[in-house]
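> example.struct
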């Protein structure tokens, strides 16, 4: 017995994935800001101490990043790759592309950052 996936189910899944990707992007932006702030603190500290040795500066930056920086990207990478692969399957006419509606395919295109198709020239 096969399980039918409706357009509503696909749209709901893609919206959920979009929310997840938005949250992930926010976390990445926060991490980048933390790294930038730490680098700025290190530069200020180095200026105060009048130590401008580039090797020492890089060493200090590496130590600061290693101390308190949490980067959850490794655990998040595989689900993102899987979601992108699933969205590409929805666009492939030899795979799931003929099983879903135009709205679902356009939602998959939006999730992948590909321009939507309004009409097909048949």
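> example.seq
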């Amino acid at each position: 017995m096969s399980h039918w996936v409706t357009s509503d189910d696909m749209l709901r899944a893609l919206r959920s994935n979009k929310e997840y990707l938005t949250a992930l992007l926010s976390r990445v932006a926060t991490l980048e800001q933390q790294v930038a702030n730490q680098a700025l603190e290190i530069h200020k500290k180095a200026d105060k101490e009048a130590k401008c040795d580039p090797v020492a500066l890089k060493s200090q930056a590496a130590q600061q990043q290693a101390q308190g920086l949490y980067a959850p990207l490794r655990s998040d990478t595989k689900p993102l790759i899987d979601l992108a692969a699933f969205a590409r399957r929805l666009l492939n006419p030899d795979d799931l592309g003929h099983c879903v509606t135009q709205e679902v395919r356009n939602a998959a295109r939006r999730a992948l950052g590909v321009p939507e198709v309004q009409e097909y020239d048949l």
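> remarks
The CA atoms of residues 46 and 57 lie 7 Å apart.
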